[in-house]
Design a protein that fits this description.
366 residues, alpha/beta, TIM Barrel, 2 domains, 8-stranded parallel barrel, 3-stranded antiparallel β-sheet, 16 strands, 42% helix, globular
Length: 366
């Protein structure tokens, strides 16, 4: 992996991330394909939306796809027909989201599968092994995501466990695949300082801010990102995990973040919430019943070039799967175009103006 910063604008950076399966321009938004596919979209859809990088989840792939890839000597890229970079999350978030079904120890986590009740054990060593078998361009350490709210004492225990798992993850990487560390510590600055300093000693290939978007107030999350993003190593990629509203992205870019992911584009698309440069459109609103204009007249995506808001509302109301696909295409395109505009604004020193426009368009009016 090579990472080069091409231009700075205050703390924001425009760069190039060179990986085994291609180059990625940063800041980048990774479209999420949890099970190896972006729900409802095919390879051509993603390419037409100018997607540069996908995020897949090792936890959801470890008991079938990873073994197939290993046994057949192929990568996840070949298996899912995607020849561009893939970042794999380790499964640490599942520790958080499936907390009622898990037992946590220093060795790892024992799950009760929510699908069939099978007992599954996931350790840092196994999480890394699965990601290596998948052939990930970037792997993530195994960590624990602290709940919110949580006391300082319990958050410290969680953070220390994540550091222990970080060391095990680092020592288990028998490949040359890049491995990122994840800063934890909940909502406590002093704990995040400890986490960051210990992770720096392990010299990971990149660093992420984790444990956010778990129900905390927006202002608290923004304070943590503003405080800690500039403290991450300058010459390595900085990744903000799971944060994805346009106004949150632009603020984080201004703090120095390079990489993003979130389910918002496709999840919201499937539920009729569409992103435009003037804010969001809820296609289920009756006012669009006879609206023959596209979602965004300035958008060149497949959906906007071929379908009206009225038609999309009609398909959605009929529960036609085409509605979810078309609206997801638009949102995925919007996010990739948003990142392209952000990169251009950094390079031509107009980030302040773009930031103002994005925040005004998407910030909830109080």
């Amino acid at each position: 992996m090579k990472f080069r910063i091409k231009k700075k604008c205050h703390n924001a950076r425009s760069g190039l991330l060179e990986l085994q399966h291609g180059s990625v321009r940063t800041p980048v938004f990774m479209t999420i394909g949890t099970y190896g596919a972006v729900r409802g979209l095919c390879k051509n859809d993603l390419e037409n939306c100018k997607t540069e990088m996908m995020l897949c989840n090792a936890y959801h792939l470890m008991n079938n796809v990873a073994n197939i890839c290993f046994d057949q000597s192929i990568s996840l890229h070949e298996y899912i027909s995607w020849d561009k970079p893939i970042l794999t999350d380790s499964g640490g978030y599942q520790v958080f989201s499936l907390s009622s079904l898990t037992k946590i120890s220093e060795e790892g986590v024992t799950f009760k599968s929510p699908q069939n009740g099978d007992t599954i054990f996931l350790s840092p060593e196994k999480a890394i092994d699965v990601q290596i078998k998948l052939g990930s361009d970037i792997m993530m350490i195994f960590d624990e995501c602290a709940k919110y709210p949580l006391s300082w004492e319990l958050t410290r225990t969680s953070m220390e466990l994540s550091l222990h798992w970080a060391r095990l993850s680092k020592n288990s990487n028998y490949s040359s695949n890049p491995l990122f560390g994840i800063v934890q510590g909940g909502m406590y600055d002093d704990l995040r300082e400890i986490s960051l300093n210990e992770l720096l000693n392990l010299n990971f290939d990149g660093y992420a801010l984790g444990g956010l978007s778990v129900g905390e107030p927006n202002e608290l999350r923004e304070d943590i990102v503003t405080n800690f993003a500039p403290k991450l190593p300058f010459d390595k990629p900085r990744y903000l995990m799971g944060v994805g509203k346009p106004q949150d992205i632009i603020r984080a870019v201004n703090s120095g973040i390079d990489m993003f992911d979130c389910v918002i584009p496709t999840r919201n698309g499937r539920n009729g919430q569409l992103f435009t440069n003037n804010g969001t459109v809820n296609i289920r609103n009756k006012k669009y019943e006879n609206d023959l204009e596209p979602i965004d007249s300035g958008c060149p995506c497949f959906t906007c070039k071929n379908y009206s808001k009225s038609m999309l509302r009609h398909l959605d109301k009929c529960n036609d799967a085409l509605a979810a696909r078309l609206m997801s295409i638009h949102n995925v395109y919007f996010y990739q175009d948003l990142m392209s505009r952000i990169r251009a604004s950094i390079e031509n020193d107009s980030l302040d103006a773009l930031s103002k426009d994005i925040i005004e368009a998407f910030e909830e009016k109080k």
